[in-house]
Sequence to fold (307 residues):
Amino acid sequence: MAPLPVQAMSPDSYLLVPLAELPPEEGWLARQSCPVIAVGEGEAANAANADVLVAASAEADPLVAAIERSPVAAMTLVQVLRTVAQLPVEAALTVESLAYSTLQSGAEYRTWLRARDAAPALVAGGEGEPIVTRREGNVVSASLNRPDNRNAITVEMRDALVELLELVLLDKSIEQLKINGRGACFSVGGELREFGLAVDPAAAHRIRSVHNPGRLLARCASRVSCHVHSACVGSGIELPAFAGHLSADPKSFFQLPELGFGLIPGAGGCVSISRRIGRQRTAWLALSGKKINARRALAWGLIDEIL
Fold:
């Protein structure tokens, strides 16, 4: 049987349900293959049976529009968030990576790739090391050092983060690692010009399994603090969210844009962010693609302090 085109799936791409009418039985949400958006205000015992909660139907409109543009990625997002909530971090990261790899072979991502002006290519480094470190006693300070590229997480930057975090894990005399970013912003996230470089989705999953800053940061989180400023987009918030303490400049903002590429957060954000703010708010961030400011991030628990 030939696979159904994406358009044929759209009538079943989401459920929009009044909060008061959500089925109450345990396990109902797990049986739904698409995102469930509940509309209503107030406390409800059955609220856990929704992927996203909104107060009014108008607030659901942008979520519905995003889901209809990328129904497979939206479905995969909520399935991953439901699953990782029940798993330890390492297993949860594996689930996220497998789902991300699946989407890398999908029509939505491939359509986005084809729409770009240029073929994917490695982005050359800037001046100096990608991460500048300084040690004072038992404290290591590390600064992302590609301000001209807005500290995008290139292959070069990823490898530098892996090297830094492996050192912290090996050297128990390092009591604290402090991470920040140089330049106008902390990080705009994954370098989009490098998207599509992986030989195949399976190879990409292997890289995320054995060469992933998020996995390493999670293992030493109690010794890591991050301070972010201005743009914290995609992996620019997914990775800091693993830190034991995360502070932000008052003018910081946070955004998960991956659904627009036919993907889900793949740098660990389905795990790190949902463990800070819950799966429903994480789903809202990823489905809407909207920015939130530092005040809302603090109120939600995405960050621990505004400095």
